[in-house]
Amino acid sequence: MSFEDFSNKLNAIVICNSVEDILASDILDSVQDYSMIMQNLLDTELKAQFAVNMMNNGHTNIVVENIGALDINENIKIGKENQEFMQIFLENFEQSLENTNEVYEYTLEDLGSTQIPSKENDGEVLSGKDIIHSNWKVLTEKSSAISRSKLFHILNTTTEGKQIIQDELPTLFYSDSSHMYNFLMRNILNDKIVSKEQMANLILANPTRMVSDSFDVKEEYMFDADNFMDLLGQIDEILETTPNLDPTKIQGARSNIEEYIAQNFEQLLERLKAKEEKNEREGYSIKDLKALKFLNTDKHLIDEELAKNYEEISSNTQKEDIMDVLHLFSDVGVEEKDIDIETAMKQTFSAITDEDLQWAISRMATELLQDQNASLKDMEIFGKGHYSRSMKIGEYIFKVGEDRSTSEIPYDERIIQPLTRRKLEGTKGEEVYVEVQNLVDKDWYKGLSDEEVDEELYKIYSEMRDRGHRWTDVRKDNVGRLLKPNTPEFDINGNRIQPEDSAIGFTGNSNERRVLPAGELVIIDTDFIFEQDQKYSGSIASAHKRFEARYLKEVMERENQETPKLLSSTIEASKEQISNKDIQGMSQSVIASQKGQEKEEKTEEYFK
Length: 608
Known about the structure:
This protein is an alpha+beta fold. The chain is 52% helix and 10% strand. The protein has a 5-stranded antiparallel β-sheet. Strands 9-11-15 form a 3-stranded antiparallel β-sheet, with helices on one face. α9 (105-112) crosses α10, α9 (105-112) packs parallel to α12 (145-155) and α26 packs across α28 (544-558). It is elongated and about 100 Å long. The chain starts with a helix and ends with a helix.
């Protein structure tokens, strides 16, 4: 076909708005030009109508021979509207697959749910899942991380598919041109398609594969710094928390990753800086820098790279991150810029403008440093909560923040006993909350499975609910393991202090309080703790709603009462669908039911 003929036919196809337009054209031959027509029609619905018309007019063989004119994404769209076309497509799947550059998520979902009678073999059923099993390798090669996640899910629904995952995990996992391994890994782990042990062994078999693939993308614009840093964190978390791994292999894997990052450190810094500029923030994210430092092994290669780039990094971080920068470089062998505690606190809490408040915060930090025989470089940011920023000073945590969800909290043995927890008011009406707590182990959950972590958190939650207290920010990062007894007595600079409840914001009866010993878990972020009959606010991403539904169900079962309809339906619903209002209503309903039963029991006892 000459270029002129091709161009004329193409122009004729583009202006067709119906099957009648195609058939009436003097330039187009619906049989000879079928493939070209199908490839260049602009409307998928029109493609479907044309293919059906061809089959109805005795040209099914043309449709079969040219099934590869479209990729599987378009073919399955057409097949959903016409069973005969779907039969042809499934029976000639490989031909269509050859002409496919990328398989989409919805295509795999539709294919996996397809099951129709075969046209060629009478009585045989064409199953989309069987076709996926037979073509999983090519489908994997042509899938993005999102569509490959769907492929994992479909394979995981059959015995044959599960065996493919078991035997071919490296091939299934690593075939992705965009290398969004962090997304894929989190997805298949969260949905329990692959176990943490399987993923850990995949990493150990080739420790730098994910890291190098993600870093060495062909097009610079495809590199996503957030995804890359998230991937590093996931890899480290899996290696650190998966039970029964060979420690020597873990050490070797971490060493390999450290070497790779050190070799590419300056290029990575450039990309991290560009990420912040793209987000309209200047300089480096301290979170990213701390994550890189955490990759250090005994070789300290990351520390060496940090030291080489000290001027660049320290000159390009936010002033609020000064404490983090000081601690980041405190042990890497560089001469840091001299700075005093007042300046450090003023920059760390730059939102606080009242000079009296600034002085008070600096004074408290100085006293804690003196008590712990520590210097400014020993301080480090310990966490950033909803309303506060906390610093580690020796064996203490010093928290400073804005107005909290509630100024008073009910005393509970599962809450960290603070040295002080109070509101400071400046001369110009500005207010901040300060709190001093004992240091706890924040990594208490490492080495535990997600289910085990969940049960530990629910134990705390249900205990507190039994005592009439509601905790609405339930997550593992808000809990710590005691390093010393949770006692209300402190020794600061030689002075023994036992703060009054009013000084630390506790309400309730102080008598007969139980002191939890070292090793027990306690809540360290107290922004969301309420009496059960109070109005309360919940925190995003908290397990509170799920735990409350479970708790109320267990209460009703203990009382041998019928579970209320609202509670039953809520337990079945997703956590996104459950509102705080629903939870409050259920709680009040169950409490009222309990009180009613108690009243009946007392009445029966009285008349006995």
